[in-house]
Amino acid sequence: MHEGGPTGRRQVRDGDGSRRLGAAELDAELGERATLVQFSSAFCQPCRATRRTLSEVAAMVAGVAHIEIDAESRLELVRALGIARTPTVLVLDAAGRIVRRASGQPRRADVIAALGEAV
Length: 119
What we know:
By secondary structure, this protein is an alpha+beta fold. It is built from four helices and six strands; from the N terminus they run E-E-H-E-H-E-H-E-E-H.
C-alpha cells in the first residue's frame, strides 16, 4: 500500500508489527485471516473511494474484514496510533498485529498485495 507524501509521491510503509489491536479497541470483530482498518472523517472525499475499494477487497478475499473508524469520534485511538490524516489504512494480521500502514487513497492492487503479507 502507498502513502502520499507532501510532494504527492506515494511510498510503501511497513506497519508496527509489535502493536496489536483487538475487537475491544476497534469496536468490531477482527477478520479470521486479516483486517483492513480505515480511519476516515466526515468530509473526506478520498475516504469514500477508499471505503469502496476496501469493501470490495474484503468481499473478494475470504476471512478478511473491513472496519471503518470515524477519526473525529475516536481521537484517543487516533493519537495512540499516530494517525495524522484521513484516510489512513492499517492492515492487521489474524492476531491483530499492524503489518502495513498507508495514508491516502490506496489502489486495489496495493491493498491485495498488502493483504498477502498479512495472511
